Input
Amino acid sequence: MFLAYELLNVLCDGKFHSGSILAKQLRVSRVSIWKGIQHLESLGLKIFAVRGRGYRLASSVELLSSAKIQQQLSSTVSQQIQRIDTPSVVSSTMDYVKDFALRRLPNFSVCVAECQTAGRGRQGRRWLSPFGANIYLSLYCQFKALRYGLSGLSLVMGIAVLKALETYGIPLSLKWPNDIYYENKKCVGILIESNYSSENSVHDVFFGIGININQSLSGEPQIGTSEYEVLQNSTDLKQILKYLPSRNEVIAKVLNQVIPHLNEFQEKGFQPFVEDWSKYDLLQGRSIKIIRESNSMLGIGKGVNERGELLLEHDGVLKAISMGEVKLQVQMT
Ligand code: BTN
Output
């Protein structure tokens, strides 16, 4: 639906535009404008239609631009990222970057989409991804001859994204393994998927980063909720900062942190990041419930070890909990 994107280019200022002027401007009928509006709404955009005034987006939106992202990359990072695709609608940016791997495109190729129709979260959850509201970014990365394996990698990604957002002067914390929280509300979720080829000892890793920017742009229910998370409310950068940050700027800041962190992880593993983690650890000293299939275990969060495993003190004994095997609840006191 090409017209819908042309329409969006006009509506993105968040101001009213009359249907007849839009029709003239885009050289189509008013019915086509109405159909274009319906298509944008089906992608999750909230649009007000007021008789006599026309159409307006619930709030303004800056569309994604690979040129604007590239311009704000540091020179070393810019040399390492050869490709940033910004498709409008994809099933999931994870599927998009998996295709990069099949085509053996360069390491650190990036996809950031306006909208995902089948965005996915951890543990098989859905990740709601309405058009233009948030950041849906995936990065393809090849790790060769990893001396320390992949353990802790997903925590490193959380640390890197947090450091990027911290440059906006906001206090954030990390909930193991890599959710980013602001005042007990989730604002970033991270997903990691990987393939390993024993033939050439290469790990193809696909990182997915979902950053909430402006949830009010869509009429959809909000992300980051689930029945087992007590800290279930989500928030976004617009609510935290009290202004709408540029999505292109946020993406560049994230890439400027993520690439050097991944380079360091490739060389040294997770060990150098343990101290960083402890600065931001939301679970340190808190009462947590680990849920493994039908069993659960209560304990106190005691940080992470050099493999990135969560340390839980249970009945005076320290247990290391590894990724992927648990669901986790923070007990409210
Ligand atoms: C979580 O459950 O907290 C992880 C959410 C990860 C969402 C991102 S958005 C970009 C990428 N594409 C997806 O389908 N998921 C990840």
Q: What stands out?
A: Residues 220-231 have pLDDT under 50 and may be disordered. The chain is about 30% helix and 25% strand. Residues 92-94, 116, 119-122, 125, 127, 136-138, 179, 189-191, 208-210 surround biotin (CB under 6 Å). Residues 57 and 298 are 46 Å apart (CA to CA).
